[in-house]
Amino acid sequence: MCGRYTTPPDSEALRRRFRVDEVREPTRALYNVAPQTEVPVVVAQGGRRILGNVRWGLIPRDAKSLKAGPHPINARAETVASSRLFREPFERRRCLVVADSFFEWTPGEGGKRPFRIQLASGEPFAMAGLWDGWRDPAAALDAPWLKSCTIVTTEANALVAKLHDRMPVILAREAEDVWLDSTAGPELLLPLLRPYP
Question: What's the predicted TM-score (pTM) here?
C-alpha cells in the first residue's frame, strides 16, 4: 500500500531526471503527501513528456459527482487490467507519479511508528500511476477537467515486507519509457508491475 509519500522540491531537477519537455505547473516539496493533495506526475502526449500536478485519488471519468463513489489512491497490480474502475486508464492514461520516498507504519508502544522508505541513492523515482480526467456533468461543456491519479501497488519486496505486505510499483528507469508508451499493451506493461528489488 502507499498511503503517504514525499516529493522532491526542484522542478528543474525533476525536468532533467524524468527527461521532461514541458513543465505545466511548478512543483514544490511535499513532505507528507495525503490523499486529495495535488501531486506532480509525468505524462506523455504527442511524443513529449509533460510534468504537471493532478489530484491524488482517482475520480472515474463517469462519476456523477465528486462525492459519488470511491476515489482510490491505490490500484492493485493484480487486477489493474481487468477492474472496471482501472481498465481504461491502464490501457490509455498511464503516468509516472514522482516521489523520493514513501511511508509505512507499524504498531508500537504509544501508537504507530512511521518508517520512511527511499532508494539507497536518495534520488527521485517514478511510481507507476494511472490518471483520468473528470468534468462535472452538471457544468457547462467548456468547464475545466479535474485530473486525478492513483498509484499502482504490488506485493512487498523482502525489505518492505517487514513493515507491510504491499508497496508501490517503483519503475526501473528503463521501464519508464515503456509505461508511458501509449502503444504498449498488457504483455509489455504487466511484467513491469513487480516489487522493486
Answer: 0.94
